[in-house]
Amino acid sequence: MSFTVEATPTADTLTEPIPLLESDFYGFQNLLTPRQQESVQSVREFMEREVRPIADDYWERAECPIHLFEPFAKLGTMGAGWKETSTLESSAVHRGWIGMELARVDSSFCTFIGVSSGLAMTSIAVGGSDEQRAHWLPKLADGSTIGAFGLTEPLAGSDTARGMRTTATREGDTWVLNGAKRWIGNATFADVVVIWAKDTADDQVKGFIVRAGTPGFTATKIERKQSLRIVQNADITLENVEVAESDRLQKIDSFRDLAKVLRITRDGVAWQALGTMIGAYEAALTYVGQREQFGRPIASFQLVQDKMATAIANITASLGMCVRVSQMQDEGTQRDEHAAMAKSFVTTRMRETVALCREVVAGNGIVLDYGVARFFADAEAVYTFEGTKDMNQLIVGRSITGHSAFV
Predict the structure, then answer these.
(1) In a domain, 391, yes or no
(2) DSSP, res 222
(3) How many domains does the chain divide into?
(4) CB neighbours (10 Å) of residue 296?
(5) CATH number at residue 114
(6) Residue 387: per-residue pLDDT
């Protein structure tokens, strides 16, 4: 019997309750409070009803479903964790689980939401004054404002701490920014972009809230991507962009302060990688149960079961690491090397897992219709951003050996 693709569900056909996450093999979700589990379930249902039916089409057209930003914000998860906007008793594990739920349906949508509610929002929450937090965090949390995060540059990725070329020069109560940024998600439509630049006076990194439409600020979409195609990454140019001192992040005085933001968001990438491999695994598991060869489902073949068992083991190990590193964030014991290990390990396991899932789906694994191809492609971007494996490994290596291997 040949394999038949089931029709893609739509919001109208999805009327039954969404089942719990079967790929949580050891039941980690039980660590969440009942209220947090309800929050997770609301996100899961939103993703199944609103995002899954359109994800492949938007991915193929390289367009972003911006219209879903505010409806998603109404779930109340984007402000979780900050006193100005939290609608429930949240935790880093709860917030990580939300990111995983986004990525298991579409890693691009997870990035779209995460750039605004993670990187941009965390920058202001960690680096902003009380006034800046009170003004911007509610707007970012309720979906009325979309944020972006401008750190990476055309010639500065892994060496951003030393190699940042974007400059900020103070002239009275105004700062003048000049330089360029690359791979900046949401930048083509964001209302505000947090731009990181080196102060020409003291050579230290500062953060600035740049509003859309500011003269001299230009964002151009990066075309021809083959990963996270829904995400609208941009090249940014800054030509004498004037920013008021009141829009400088008041608690950011060095790259060390910026690193506090990256530590919080880096383990979020680990959760995203976890969701990406779960998405591929679930699609592959459905496929092998339906696809028949030699008169029986290929799920009954030993080699297929071996690959699927390896995939669920990778997922389970990664979930355990994600949970623990997020618990450490809540406890206040998480250090850079802890977040770096999670990002490095989980993204590596993700890369292996999506490849195994692609393998069991065989030739159909390169077609969007069978559910694995999008996750397989998107994994490549998740594997790289927020620090490559090599850089994160060196952060861990420095911690355990006491010697820095950085140039």
Answers:
(1) yes
(2) P
(3) 3
(4) 10
(5) 1.10.540.10
(6) 82
Looking at the chain, how many residues does it have?
Answer: 407
Q: Say whether both 188 and 104 belong to one domain.
A: no
pLDDT tens sequence across 110-127: 999 999 999 999 999 999
Residue 191 reports pLDDT greater than 90: yes
Residue-wise over 70-101: b if at least 16 C-beta within 10 A, else e? eebbebbbbbbbbeebeeeebbbbbbbbbbbb
For 336-365, the pLDDT digits (tens) are 999 999 999 999 999 999 999 999 999 999
Kindly provide the residue ranges of all beta strands, DSSP E only, lying in 186-284, ordered along the sequence.
192-199, 205-211, 217-221, 233-244
Of 241, 218, 228, 247, the closest CA to residue 109 belongs to 228
Q: How confident is the model at residue 19 (pLDDT cuts 50, 70, 90)?
A: low
Its domain, for residue 230, covers 147-247
Neighbouring C-beta atoms of residue 49, cutoff 10 Å: 17
Chain segment 147-156, per-residue pLDDT in tens: 999 999 998 7
Asked if residue 282 is part of any domain, the answer here is: yes
77 and 125, same structural domain? Answer: yes
What is the reported pLDDT for 266? Answer: 84
Q: Residue 302 has which token pair?
A: 């030993």
* CA distance to 22, 53, 135, 261, 372, per residue, from 369 (Å): 22, 11, 44, 38, 8
Q: Is 274 helix (H, G, I), strand (E, B) or coil?
A: helix
Amino acid symbol at 314:
N
